[in-house]
Design goal:
Elements lengths: L1 H18 L20 E3 H4 E3 L5 E10 L11 H13 L14 E10 L8 E8 L10 E8 L5 E8 L5 E5 L2 E5 L4 E10 L8 E2 L2 E6 L4 H15 L4 E5 L2 E5 L8 H9 L2 E3 L5 E5 L4 E4 L4 E2 L2 E5 L2 E12 L10 E12 L3 E5 L4 H10 L4 H13 L3 E2 L1 E4 L1
Parallel strand pairs: 16-24
Antiparallel strand pairs: 1-15, 2-12, 3-4, 3-6, 4-5, 5-10, 6-7, 7-10, 8-9, 11-12, 12-14, 13-14, 16-17, 18-23, 19-22, 20-21
């Protein structure tokens, strides 16, 4: 019943806000405000050039030098990897005889950026795959990093930085951050370059990070104003193709730089995003509340324990006894209906803030308004 009371309070606050707009006569309904305009954003923030992308690399390696916090003997692949490593140096040893508490098997991952050249360095991420307690103080041995095609593109090696620690003894342990995952800044050397093909058939393709028909059309208009009519065309809501002008084929860097700084007014759908785990509610500026009636009714149910005293008669030899008797009281208020006439998101937020509602209450209110068909927006729960 508190939910109905909250809805009614919002309906009353919004009705008052709508009827008290400046310049309106008392009691006259206010005209709903139009949707908020889009923001002016550079094409650089809206899209990327097709073919210019990162490439994922990964490899399997060993971290050594741990202070007894590495993999136990139960992790067979760590002992096998150490035995294979020693075999390369001419030392033959059975894996089952190895003690690997100072060694941890890890998976090494990295992103290979575009345009990096042979000899450049990139960061790598090191993650334990065994039962090591921490990688603190360890050093990654030389680990080849392969791409999806099986080719080696970089080689990683160096001291692991975990940005935390794990310590403890019997019955007491202290851990800060995640000690089984660490980074090696500039820990990999690029050994193979990835060719970048940005121009196909004399055209550049711009890929919008958030496909939208209106935004794609405005990107085309902005580029055509810069390069001339018919220089750009939209293939779909997420792709814009730009014809490379004559004489600019050898100046792609300058051409892309000119296009990336062009301002474009974005267009986004009305959306309300709700995170039920954290209680976060984000309401887009284009959200409009259609006319809707909200019912107000209060029902208060109170359950209490009252103490009753039983007093025996004089000289009867009895004892005074106290007992707890439950009492239930129900109080119901008459229902009232409030109307909302085209409230905008600004008025909705103002009313919610004025009522000092908790995020959980706001989430329940928005879901109920959407379920009633009065919210003209997408409701996304994450």
């Amino acid at each position: 019943m508190r939910f109905s009371l909250l809805l009614a309070a919002i309906g009353l606050s919004l009705a008052q806000a709508l009827s008290a707009a400046p310049g309106d006569s008392p009691g006259a309904p206010a005209a709903p405000a139009g949707p908020a305009g889009g923001a002016m954003v550079r094409i650089k923030e809206l899209a990327r050039v097709s073919g210019v992308r990162n490439n994922q690399l990964f490899g399997y390696g060993l971290v050594v030098g741990l202070d007894g916090s590495g993999d136990s003997n139960q992790v067979a692949f760590t002992a096998r990897a150490v035995a294979n490593l020693m075999q390369r140096f001419g030392v033959s040893i059975a894996p089952e005889t190895l003690k690997t508490r100072n060694v941890a098997a890890v998976v090494v991952t990295a992103d290979l950026p575009p345009f990096v050249r042979e000899g450049n360095r990139i960061d790598v991420l090191v993650s334990s795959v065994g039962d090591a307690r921490t990688l603190q103080g360890g050093t990654l041995l030389q680990t080849p990093l392969e791409g999806a095609d099986g080719q080696v593109y970089a080689v990683a090696q160096g001291p692991v930085s975990i940005g935390g620690f794990a310590a403890g003894g019997r019955g007491a342990n202290v851990t800060r951050n995640h000690p089984t995952v660490g980074r090696i800044p500039n820990g990999a050397i690029v050994e193979r370059e990835v060719p970048v093909t940005a121009v196909k058939d004399g055209e550049l393709s711009l890929l919008l990070s958030r496909p939208d028909y209106a935004t794609a059309a405005r990107v085309v208009q902005a580029i055509n104003r810069k390069l001339g009519a018919a220089a750009a065309r939209s293939v779909d809501a997420g792709t814009v193709r730009v014809r490379v002008p004559a004489g600019r084929a050898n100046d792609l860097v300058g051409l892309v730089a000119e296009l990336e700084v062009l301002p474009v007014e974005t267009d986004t759908p009305a959306r309300v995003v709700i995170n039920e785990r954290t209680g976060t509610v984000v309401i887009g500026g284009r959200v409009v509340i259609a006319p809707v009636a909200v019912s107000h009714g209060g029902l208060v149910v109170e359950v209490a324990q009252e103490t009753a005293v039983s007093q025996p008669a004089p000289l009867s030899g009895g004892h005074t006894v106290t007992t707890q008797q439950p009492q239930t009281r129900v109080q119901e208020e008459p229902a009232t209906v409030f109307g909302l006439q085209g409230a905008t998101v600004e008025e909705l937020v103002k009313a919610l803030n004025a009522l000092r509602l908790t995020p959980r209450d706001i989430i329940a209110i928005l879901q109920a308004i959407k379920q009633a068909g009065a919210m003209q927006a997408e409701l996304e729960v994450i």
